[in-house]
Amino acid sequence: MSVLFVCASPRGRQSSSLWLSEYVEAALPAGTEVDRVMLGDLGLEEADPASDPRLEDLVGRMRSARVVVWVLGLYTFGVPSGLRLLFDRLLTTTATADFAGRGAVALLTSARFQDDRVLDRLRLVSEQLGFGWIGDVSVLGNPVTGFESGQPLVRLAKRIAGEIAEVVQGGPVPPARSLPVERSVLAPGPDRGPGRGDPLSDLASPGPDLRGLPAGPSPILVLTGTSADVDPSVAEAIAAIRDAATRPVEVLDLARVRLRHCTGCYACNRELAGRCVQPDALQAVRGRMSRAGAVVVVSRAGAAMPDLALRRLAERMWGDCHRPPFTGIPGAVAVVRGGPVADLAGDDLALFLSLTGIRVVGRWTDAPPDPEVRRQAVALEIRRLERAMDEGVDEPDRYSVTASRLAFRDMALRWSFYLRADYRYHRLNGLLADRPRWRDLGFRLMARSERLFRAMVAGGRRTAERRHAHRLDVLRRERGQA
Ligand SMILES: Cc1cc2nc3c(=O)[nH]c(=O)nc-3n(C[C@H](O)[C@H](O)[C@H](O)COP(=O)(O)O)c2cc1C
Prior knowledge:
This protein is an alpha/beta fold. The protein has 19 helices and eleven strands.
């Protein structure tokens, strides 16, 4: 088999990235052997990665392909958590020799907010797995309204199909751009050990926001993506925070919290409050965050990304990025065992926290080899954090945060799809002032009327499906004539 499409959207067959991949498939030369894996159907084993026949089967299919194509939508500035899990498993169980001489491609659909961040990461991970990076396509699209008409969608699909075909027909794969990163960094091992249950299970029932309130001053909430009892570096980070803090410190081990992955249902966009509607511990976690005096996130950097549990949290809090609930709470980000890619995972986390309203005032890694120096580094950052808790943060945001926030808002504004969670913010901040009045009126109606919003979404989907079928038809006919 020549080309393997690995489709990672949690929306499965209803996803827009799948549509994009179908254009690419239809543009491949007739006779090209193609295989397709829907990651959601595969159901990779999270608990016991060592003996997962589904993973072995997938690795076998990847090895027999000449080109592997990652097909995905962008989920809160990152890859869908199913793909994050797959990367973890591949980096743990394979060696670069397994995929040497093969090419990788990414097909991404999104609102184009931070698409390049994710494409760069996909390239890095693919190269570390042993693939040569052929290229990528990133298009504006969503599964509800489809693709923006007028964008060079089909031309891009044909271009990348041509590049894939060259490699399938024996052309060279490009050499790596990235230097090798140790597997101990990219695949740092399990994130949670056996035993102890979900620390929030008693809070996952209705009304979590009112329970478990700690007495006394607001605590520093430490969210860890890996359990302290499976990774001593995480334990060391927590101990250093406790030593340095003069406030109570509350630790929430997200690796043990039952957080489902985002299903891509878009309810967070439909909901005025922007909250995820899946019934699990998410609201309890959000409750803890909103009551915290400060939030510190501790992660490793497997696959050069935040831990899986933190990836899930970010995905599920997409609506919170649109309607930030934690405005004014100071925060800090720590990445342990991240080696040369620590800053990549740290940047992802800082961006996520910033868009939920948290002001990231501290950051550190465990780079210093001397444990005493590492402790000092943590102490300095915790002092800075506590000062921000006492005095507030009046320092203006730096360029990257300001630019990201503005770009995010601008894109949300252009995409009326995000309206319901965003509308109030846009109106309060005067962002609708210089827009055509009819559009503002349309926004207002949709923000008020659930029915109108649903009708618009259903109508958009029907049109999108019609256009999709037409594009595929044209591409297939062209191939037939070639
Ligand atoms: C939970 C969630 C998070 C999203 N995060 C981003 C994002 O960070 N940047 C962006 O440009 N688009 C984002 N989007 C929009 C999706 O990337 C876009 O709709 C994409 O087409 C979905 O692909 P799929 O249908 O293949 O899953 C998000 C959508 C959802 C539902």
